[in-house]
Design brief:
This protein has about 260 residues and is α+β, with helices and mostly antiparallel strands. The chain has three helices and eight strands. A hairpin with a 7-residue loop joins strand 6 and strand 7. The radius of gyration is 34 Å and the shape is flat. Its main location: nucleus. InterPro entries: YEAST_sf, YEATS, YEATS_dom. Pfam families: YEATS.
Length: about 260
Amino acid sequence: MTQTPPSAPKDDSNRPEATASPINKPENSPEERENKNLSRRVKDVEISVPIVYGTIAFWLGRKATESQSHRWTVYVRGGTNEDLSVVVKRVVFQLHPSFNNPIRVVDSPPFELSECGWGEFEIAISLYFHSDAGDRKLDVFHHLKLYPLEQNGPQSTKKPVVMETYDEVVFPDPSEQFLARVQNHPAVVVPRLPAGLELPSSERRGSMKDHPLGHWFMNFSEADELLKLAAARQQVQAHIVKLRRQMSMVEGSSGTADPASAF
């Protein structure tokens, strides 16, 4: 039996040594810059986003059936109907389980959906925000109202039942990227920036004033609130004047009373 001799060891003394090539990481890549901007926080600054969520319900009148008496719309909008997509990435509406596909996802404005039905129920609404806002989520609840609070008289197909709730979403110590992106947007309220902080200007856009249901929306503007406060103040002042007159009349009548009547 012939045995194969072992191979002679190879002489590698003249082979050049292999050197590991360093991996050159790009400096200041877009990802690194984005992460850096997200990590930088603007202290003592709060971004406020006024929002309104609610429903508008129309009675179908002669077209109403036992199972579909109203057509309604549930929505999330800006405080004065601005486009919220600068802050809100997605809105999820959770309807009553009796609806087909009761969990509805809306990924673009207007953040709303319309349905037909006959019953009132609570709608769960989840707002998801963009990553530079901190990937936050806000859960709110709204009761769908189909019938007017006052039950006097028949329902009208021309005047809907509107139920809305006003709220403000506050982002404390926002990232520089988020602040720079939304600082000039009409849906966002940004206070005076700290001294020495300069941010790139952004285009002022995002109005949705021409919404088809806009004339039914409630007014939550500061001017409207100031008018209400002024009217309430006038009523209080008029009531104070009336009370003072009554007190002076009582004091006057007691001062002119016959002294003998006291005995």
